[in-house]
Amino acid sequence: MQDDFADWYSALWPRVLRVVTVAVGDRDLAEEATAEAFARALARWPATAEVTSPIAWLQTVAINHVRSRWRRGRLERRALERMAGQPQRHPDAPEPRNDALWDAVAALPSRTRHIVALRYIADLPEAEIAVTLGITRGTVASTLSRARQQLGSVLSSPTATSEEIS
Amino acid sequence: MTPLDEELARHLRSFPAAPPRPLGEIEVRARMLHRHRRVSAVGLTVTAVAALTVAGTTTSWWGTSSPFDSGPDDRAAAGPLDHAAAPVDCPQTVGDAQAAVDQAVTEGVRHVADTTDVPVPLRLLWSQEAAPAPETASATDYTAAADLLAPYEDACAALPMQNLRLVDLDDGTVTRAVSVSYVDVPYVRDPNAEARTLEAGSTLISVSHQEAGKDGVAASWGTAEGSWMVAGSPLSDDEVVELALAARYTDGQISLDQWSIAADADYMVPARAGNAAVGGVFYQVENDELILTVDSAKENLWLRARVGDEVIEVNGKPGLLHAEPVLVSVTWQVAEEVLASLTTHNASADTTLDIAQSVHPAPGDDPQLIASWQADPASSG
């Protein structure tokens, strides 16, 4: 199809996949959902190219795709495992190099993970996160504050430091 | 951003990401979505998808791990029965059917705008004394998705599918939970998903990779006439072989009369099928510690049974308690065709059961419900 979509796709894929992975807590599922989101974008191309915040749009489609499947029961068990901070491991996907941080992120409540992903990976401002998720800016701020404390303690621990990304 | 924010961002953005899927895959999927958007609705082979769901496979459009997926060459096997009835682009394979159902769910989904619009049997809430107030509440109505599919039941050749869930109990605990499925499409063996094989007479049974840390078994076999799958635990190789020899599909029904496991089962219930797999209303209330979901998708409690579940009662209704080290869930049959499930994070089984026992019908003007209601869903794309 369109060359401009191919460029758009390859440029946005890594960041969208990371956002969805952190939000979902399951890299296997995140990859499927991210691919679905890009396919839906292509099905609407070139209108999708005009979206103001493509990362926010794509991650929303991907997360909704996950929820749709979760709702239908297929992935309920895996979703529950994610809630417990036991992310599934995709045998062929690269592992995060800072496992302590990954585990800490995976153990966060689902909405907190989603907010963390949008703030730190998608680089969305708090106001835009609030609009994207349909919550107040105050909730975004307080949730980020709690997450910052939890994840910050992991980053400052000696174990995490020793696994620092080289 | 503070230095800590910057450090967090740096670490999170450096998590390795799998490379993009081949663009060709995205294009094929996009064309399928586009095609389904052009036709006004989709055909029906929902049953096949429902069966795969119940069987617990991770089959998806993106993956071809299902032994039930038939390739393009098989497309002549099923076809429109009466194109004059409606200009329907009927799905021909399980993969097409799943995409069609996904599309119907996407296009037919409707967020419930107001708490008073939630059907009464679903609008439940735990008591304030039992657990902290909910932070978010929402409901999604999928009945329009089912409506999108319904008019095409007569126009398209459905893939006949049957699914049976067998559950054994011992002293109030689930000791076996197995799903047997059949779909009327040629069997295609998938060596990539095969860990080993078994022989049942002249039939070769493909045993799929088992998930690490789980003792479940998934096996499939079939002929040019149709495909079988069994998934669950515990299942010995001998039991799988016996099933392959005993299972029959006649007059649109699975018969397991000759399988000893079925003869001894405490419950043998058909799984969701047809539009029931898609329709219904899904209501969810949660805070950081627990999630309460209520689903009116015509599910039977025993379809949710897992090995180790304890049979319980919740306010006089039959239920199942599933306890893991961190997660505890209680699922119960609130009403006919309405299942509720409450899952806690880091709470004991007793506490979880107490919270479940406190769940009660909530009025539409319940202040907690109104305060937590999410009336504006994100775009479904």
TrEMBL record, chain A:
Domain of life according to the entry: Bacteria
GO MF entry, a single one: sigma factor activity
Pfam families hit by this protein: Sigma70_r2 (PF04542), Sigma70_r4_2 (PF08281)
Matches recorded under InterPro entries: RNA_pol_sigma-70-like (IPR039425), RNA_pol_sigma-70_dom (IPR014284), RNA_pol_sigma70_r2 (IPR007627), RNA_pol_sigma70_r4_t2 (IPR013249), RNA_pol_sigma_r2 (IPR013325), RNA_pol_sigma_r3/r4-like (IPR013324), WH-like_DNA-bd_sf (IPR036388)
SUPFAM superfamilies: Sigma2 domain of RNA polymerase sigma factors, Sigma3 and sigma4 domains of RNA polymerase sigma factors
Keywords: DNA-binding, Sigma factor, Transcription, Transcription regulation
Annotated RNA polymerase sigma factor 70 region 4 type domain residues: 99-151
Chain ranges of the RNA polymerase sigma-70 region domain: 9-74
GO terms (BP aspect): DNA-templated transcription initiation
Similarity section: Belongs to the sigma-70 factor family. ECF subfamily.
Name of the featured protein: SigE family RNA polymerase sigma factor
Native source organism of the sequence: Jiangella anatolica
Automatic annotation (TrEMBL), chain B:
Keywords annotated in UniProt: Membrane, Transmembrane, Transmembrane helix
Highest taxon of source: Bacteria
Keyword Transmembrane helix applies: yes
Chain segments annotated as transmembrane: 39-62
Protein name listed in UniProt: Uncharacterized protein
